[in-house]
Amino acid sequence: MTPDYGEKEQALPFRPRERPALHPLTAATAHSWLPMMIRYFLAASFLFLLGFFYAHATLPGLAGTRCQPGSPTDPCSFFEAGPREDPRTDLPRTNSTSRRPQALCTQREYETGHWEPIPLVNITQQVLDFEDTLPNPYGVSWHYCAPMPDIRSAGGGRWNHGKWDEGERSDEETFLEGEKRSVGINAWEWVPEMGRECMVEWDAIDLVVRLLRSPGGLILVGDSITRQHYHSIMHLIASAGITYGSDLPTLPMADHKNVNQHTLNPASPSTALLLSLSGVPKSRILRPIVTYLEDHLFIGQADIREITYRFGAEEGYTWWYDFQRVEDWEKFVQDAARPRYGEVESVREDTVVLLNTGPHWSRNDINMLPKNKLPEEFARLRGCYAAMVDKVTARLNPIPQLSVVYRSTSPGHPGCRNRRTPYFDLRSALYHEANVRQRLLDDAENDKIRDGRKVWDWDLFPDHNDAWRSKIRSLSRRRGSRGASATKKATKGGANWLYMDIWDMSLQRPDAHNEPSDCLHWCMPVVLNEWTYLLHHVLSLQERKMELERVAAKPDSPDSSVPIHWD
Predict the structure, then answer these.
(1) Which residue in 187, 106, 69, 166 sits closest to 526, CA to CA?
(2) 3-class DSSP state of 471
(3) Region (Disordered) spans which residues (predicted)?
(4) Measured in whole angstroms, how far is the alpha carbon of residue 215 from the centre of its chain?
(5) Could you tell me if 468 and 406 are in contact, meaning their C-beta atoms sit under 8 angstroms apart?
(6) CA 540 to CA 232: how far, in whole Å?
(7) How many other C-beta atoms can be found within 10 angstroms of the C-beta atom of residue 179?
(8) Would 472 disulfide with which of 68, 86, 130, 497, CB 3.0-4.6 Å?
(9) H-run or E-run covering 47
(10) Considering only CA atoms, which of 497, 494, 523 is closest in space to residue 510?
């Protein structure tokens, strides 16, 4: 098998925002003689006061104190001008700068926010340029999302056997409407309530450098929605000018249909720069930076039977099992995360595993449990799901130099074809998306479809998320009680556990699903990209936390006895 390497073109998501022209009244008076003299007088007065302030600066808490450049509370910093240049200019940097705000959002502050529109210069031109501005050279195209029905005409579409039929639209009209919808969906960005200034700025190079400094990089495990997220991550990396290959034959499970592994292209100049920035040996690029394992339920049939028997399933039941699976994927992770000879000093960061499983844990798929009243059926399914969580965490927890991030299951939006824009805020989303089970049934075209939807169990997604949140909280508390030394943990302890909550962010985007008949998967890539930006933020916070712990753990550190609290 020959790896596929290829140069990837730089992509910018949208055109720069244009500066508005002067108001006509302002333009007409801007060059008259009298206003000009007034402006000169005001400007001179301002400069005089500014100079006086600079020489005799007194700020609250600094009364009588002159400017002291270099001080952490330096009032002179007000007068510093111009951003510092990023010396790493060899690679194009899509949607990235080297800016690092001093006051970062906590993870929860980042997860709490709303969507704001990105101004578009010209919607027609955006449609024409969409394939160029968001190219995806790695196989899965997202320049087109199925259009919503045209509510202005009777021929705008209808339900037909559970699928949305475009009716009288021509293929060309359908495609154009789909591209318009894609542009509109991608014309929004997530803004934490504290503002985007508190976010760690997205930088694909920073992420790949972080992944190179770990033995196994980033490993995603999950279902088709996780596969969408994986495609989004690889597109963001490629858009930064980083080239990579797929499924080298020397890698473990290289021929497995549900395993996708990506290594850096050794012949690319971008790889040489990344090696230099990361400080790792060349041997590291022989292993993946990103791996995707498609495993829908996380456990195999033997585990499923053992669990479901505990919750009342009939012994020896017949079960149609055709879910995508990677047997012993936990052992694959363990091998990927182990330190390699010659890399121990430089490849010191944790391998990152990003997990999610949820939609397939429904009565539609776990259909061998006893049938009874709905509350009892839900209680059994919750019990089975919690037992799966226990099994997975028990297998991953002993692995050293591993950070496990569980991404919460994203919500489905019944009747999503009726939404053209995001909700204004979370409060509005919670109001309109309440009672998901009943709305899912009410939206069905006929009784047959309605009966099928009764066992989709989208209303159990929050319970699944709570099971992981509670388990991770318990694991983190137990790990914290063993001591605060990150260095000791990295060599002798177990995995580090994190919970990444994308529920609120995703709940506010009912407009951004694949097509009118699929209100669970996402029209790529905007919502999924925001998940990646959040992951980058979480890993950056974790890196800073670990560095503080390492400093505090040193015997000669003045803060070695001070506990560290990280919210």
Answers:
(1) 187
(2) helix
(3) 74-102
(4) 22
(5) yes
(6) 19
(7) 19
(8) 497
(9) helix 33-55
(10) 523
- Tokens 């010659």 belong to 342
Per-residue pLDDT tens for 233-285?
999 999 999 999 999 999 999 999 999 999 999 999 999 999 999 999 999 99
> Three-class SS of residue 406?
strand
Provide the residue count of the chain.
567
β-sheet bridge partners, residue 220: 292, 354
**Omega of the bond leading into 215 within 30 degrees of 0 (cis):** no
Q: What is residue 226's predicted lDDT score, i.e. its pLDDT?
A: 98
Pairing label, strands 244-246, 163-165: unpaired
Q: Which two tokens stand for residue 405?
A: 């991030």
- C-alpha–C-alpha distance, residues 56 and 50, integer Å: 10
Between CA 508 and CA 185 the distance in angstroms is: 12
Going by C-alpha positions, the residue among 127, 145, 229 that lies closest to residue 519 is 145
Structure tokens at 471: 């388990």
Give backbone dihedrals phi and psi of 183, rounded to 5 degrees, phi first.
-60, -45
Joined together, the tokens standing for residue 16 give 């720069």
Q: What share of the chain is helix, strand, coil (3-state, %, to 5)?
A: 45, 10, 45
Residue 186 neighbours by CB under 8 Å, 6+ apart? 13, 14, 134, 525, 526
Amino acid in position 300? G
d(CA 445, CA 450): 7
Cα–Cα dist 10/534, whole Å: 22
Residue 12's alpha-carbon distances to 93, 95, 502, in angstroms, are 9, 7, 25
* DSSP-assigned letter for residue 24: H
d(CA 217, CA 269): 20
User: Domain locations in the chain?
Assistant: 188-553
Between the alpha carbon of residue 68 and those of residues 61, 75, 82, 470, the distances in Å are: 14, 7, 19, 49
CA-based nearest residue to 267, from 478, 3, 553, 563: 3
* pTM of the predicted structure, to 2 decimals: 0.78
Instruction: For the chain, report the end-to-end CA distance as a whole number of angstroms.
Output: 47
Reported as type and span, the H/E element at residue 496 is strand 496-500
The amino acid that residue 210 corresponds to is: R
Measured in degrees and rounded to the nearest 5, phi and psi for residue 336 equal: -65, -35
CA distance linking residue 26 with residue 174, whole number of Å:
45
Q: Which residue intervals of 279-425 are DSSP H helices?
A: 301-310, 329-337, 374-396
Which position has the token pair 């292993």? Answer: 287
* Parts of the chain with a pLDDT under 70: 1-102, 120-144, 148-168, 481-492, 554-567
What value does the CA radius of gyration of the chain take, rounded to a whole number of Å? Answer: 27
464 phi/psi in degrees, rounded to 5: -60, -45
Q: What is the pLDDT of residue 474?
A: 96
Helices (H), 162-300: 171-185, 204-212, 224-239, 269-278
